[in-house]
Write a structure and sequence with these properties.
Elements: E1 7-12, E2 15-20, H1 29-38, H2 41-56, E3 63-69, H3 71-78, H4 83-88, E4 89-95, E5 112-117, E6 130-134, H5 142-148
Parallel strand pairs: 2-3, 3-4, 4-5, 5-6
Antiparallel strand pairs: 1-2
Length: 155
């Protein structure tokens, strides 16, 4: 079993997908708020270490893809700061990630594609890589747009 508490691993043929769990409920939103308010890097570094541990069990011949929503998207993108993870990762796809580019340490940000629902307040700011922005449902009120556009279910 390669999966960890906040990371799921799926393998198909020679492809390995590392999925970083994001915010699921209001209690987990405290992690997001804590990160945004204090830039708590310990939590991020712990998840990157778990990713490194997982990669040790994945054959070198496998292609690695990484993804995540919200805080999971932040971890997926920041994991590229680790040289071994960066070298083995083919692409990172994030969904409404917390903003993650705050310094120039990032390498190969061309590997990152961010998918963002317009109006998602958690995704405001600078991101590395490409960003694809999607419009929310036209049936949404302004409040619903600002409140619910962060959900992974909006994609």
């Amino acid at each position: 079993q390669l999966s960890k508490k906040y990371i799921s691993v799926y393998q198909k043929g020679l492809d390995t997908f590392i999925v970083h769990r994001g915010t699921d409920d209001p209690h987990q939103a405290l992690y997001d708020i804590n990160y945004i308010s204090s830039k708590n890097e310990d939590y991020i570094h712990q998840r990157i270490q778990e990713t490194r541990d997982i990669l040790e069990s994945v054959p070198k011949s496998h292609r690695i893809f990484s993804t995540g929503h919200s805080l999971g998207g932040l971890v997926a993108a920041k994991s590229l700061l680790d040289p071994e993870i960066n070298k083995r990762t083919i692409a990172v796809e994030t969904f409404n990630p917390l903003t993650h580019i705050t310094d120039r340490k990032y390498q190969n940000t061309h590997k990152i594609t961010n998918h963002v629902i317009f109006g998602d307040v958690a995704s405001l700011g600078h991101r590395g890589g490409k960003t694809k922005t999607y419009l929310p449902s036209i049936r949404s009120s302004l409040f619903q747009t600002l409140h619910t556009n962060h959900s992974i279910n909006r994609f």
